[in-house]
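Priority: medium. Attachment 1 of 2:
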């Protein structure tokens, strides 16, 4: 954390608290929906979905606030390249699975583990785009 200034640290802590609070609220909403309304997914899929939504919120908020880039530009470029390579790899795997019809998001009225994969690919691509768009401004 020594690479960030005080404003960035404050923003990261604030957005971390918001993401944690969002995670708690979504967990209770998810439990209510599964117990009272409709079992939309297994416990593992539902839990990972809640965690991924709050993680995406934290990532997007910190990128938009400029609190994700350190004062060392070479470190920022390294992370951008690593994130881009991972995003392209997962997007290619997703495209191949989609073309071969190996993705089944809903089965028997419940979300499957493929939903986690789809959310992860979407989150990686969105974070990568936000990184590349926001980087020149910071």
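Attachment 2 of 2:
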């Amino acid at each position: 954390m020594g690479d960030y200034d005080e404003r960035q640290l404050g923003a990261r802590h604030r957005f971390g608290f918001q993401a944690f609070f969002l995670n708690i609220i979504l967990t209770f909403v998810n439990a209510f929906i599964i117990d009272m309304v409709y079992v939309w997914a297994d416990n593992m899929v539902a839990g990972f979905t809640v965690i991924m939504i709050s993680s995406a919120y934290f990532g997007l908020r910190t990128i938009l606030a400029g609190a994700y880039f350190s004062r060392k530009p070479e470190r920022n470029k390294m992370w951008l390249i690593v994130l881009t390579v991972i995003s392209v790899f997962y997007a290619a795997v997703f495209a191949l699975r989609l073309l071969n019809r190996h993705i089944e998001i809903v089965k028997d009225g419940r979300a499957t583990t493929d939903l986690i994969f789809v959310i992860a690919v979407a989150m990686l691509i969105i974070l990568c785009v936000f990184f590349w768009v926001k980087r020149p401004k910071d």
